[in-house]
Structure to design on (370 residues):
DNA sequence: ATCCACATGTAAGGCGTTACATGATTGG
DNA sequence: CCAATCATGTAACGCCTTACATGTGGAT
């Protein structure tokens, strides 16, 4: 019974109650998107696969002339989700073009390092702001597990923004060339 | 002249000096790996592609009976790298199974939220430690752009570890159910 | 009428990993 | 002699995004 990584996102949100693919996509876009994105091209086929595996079951509940498939978690799906929850997390992947540019900026003209730092910081600040806005919109108890993730995202990005400012200030005083350049050969 | 995302990593490290695919892989594994990974299955074919595009040039420099291709950045490659450096970063992707589990933990038995938080914190602490070790091994000026990234990784992960501890302590006092569960329907 | 939100899907292609295959050299 | 390191590569496959395709219902 192989479930793809993103399959667990679907099992997880269906554990909160029945939903359509469209609704799942909306939920994901204001929540897990920031640490686990999912597109329609993933969601719809994956829902079918999970149904084929008996982990969720879909029912056609049209609204007027609009076709609509509402999926719910089955007992087997709940068991699979629970087993996954107990396993230690394994996937921690990051692809950060800002950091990459900063990393490679040694040897570039003066001021480039500061520019990359300021771009990174700005990005983090903007992200924090978007997350704060979502936080304001959803309200609710700040200790709830899902809102804890929101708080994490906000505070993390605020920290990053501040770090970038500090680093840029420090670097301006005495810029240095790359170090890994010399090593590793 | 299309260059794939990871292609720029190769251009970037070749900007520091000529290297073989093997050497690039080693360098990446102790540096960009934490925010931009690359496998042999990527590196070798990509090097050939970049060479085909005239952005790098490879020379066969066997060591004894061991075949060895040393690549260097060409002028066109330098120009392409420089143009990329000037563009604002666009790729910021994260896939964090720990956060995902935390997010989905609402509705789970009591104590699960704390467990996920402690696992996240532990992971961050271990990562910080590995990075500190690399920092000790490479030494060098702390303001160099590449070592700035290392410092960033260390301090970020230390911050995450502390955040997780704090959050677990706070949550233990008054656990709450999921909030997004109610929203988004 | 027109636009937006609702709603579901597929096809092509990009990017990347894992596993496999091969072989030379060096150090213990 | 054996293990680790140096060194290069390919094939299969998984995962995911983008773009396309299609249609309904409600509000202005």
């Amino acid at each position: 019974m192989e479930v793809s990584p993103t399959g667990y996102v679907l099992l997880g949100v269906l554990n909160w109650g029945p939903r359509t693919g469209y609704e799942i996509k909306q939920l994901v876009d204001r929540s897990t998107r920031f640490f686990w994105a999912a597109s329609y091209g993933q969601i719809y086929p994956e829902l079918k696969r999970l149904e084929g595996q008996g982990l969720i079951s879909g029912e056609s509940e049209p609204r007027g002339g609009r076709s609509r498939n509402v999926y719910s978690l089955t007992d087997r799906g709940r068991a699979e989700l629970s087993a996954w929850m107990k396993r230690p997390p394994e996937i921690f992947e990051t692809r950060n073009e800002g950091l990459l540019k900063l990393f490679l900026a040694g040897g570039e003209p003066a001021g480039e390092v500061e520019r990359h730092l300021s771009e990174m910081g700005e990005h983090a600040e903007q992200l924090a702001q978007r997350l704060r806005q979502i936080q304001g919109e959803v309200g609710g108890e700040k200790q709830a597990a899902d809102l804890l993730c929101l708080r994490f995202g906000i505070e993390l990005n605020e920290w990053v923004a501040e770090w970038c400012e500090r680093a840029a200030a420090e670097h301006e005083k005495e810029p240095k060339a790359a170090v890994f350049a010399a090593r590793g050969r």
